[in-house]
Amino acid sequence: xxxxxxxxxxxxxxxxxxxxxxxxxxxxxxxxxxxxxxxxxxxxxxxxxxxxxxxxxxxxxxxxxxxxxxxxxxxxxxxxxxxxxxxxxxxxxxxxxxxxxxxxxxxxxxxxxxxxxxxxxxxxxxxxxxxxxxxxxxxxxx
Length: 142
Known about the structure:
It contains four helices and six strands.
């Protein structure tokens, strides 16, 4: 079993406090705050980190599934947009939208879309997020 860790430290109250998150053995360390999460303040936030995890996981899963189907992807670029909304008086993560553009020689659009849809359903982060809406726009570049 693989275990991955991250650390968060928060100081102060919700509105005026601040925090840091760190992971990757120090490869990433970022600040976060009320304004970076619920407004447009400087810093990161938990939803942005989930989006990074989802886009990275999907890109790897799609690349692997393409290779297993006999195609060699030159590049898979993915952006994830995670939605945080007020629901029933509290904030909830409600959706993750994946936008993917890939360069895959020799594959048809239909086959590419089929494999991309399977990767969307099967990547481990998608499985983790299966209680929210996950959508995908996949584009094949020539």
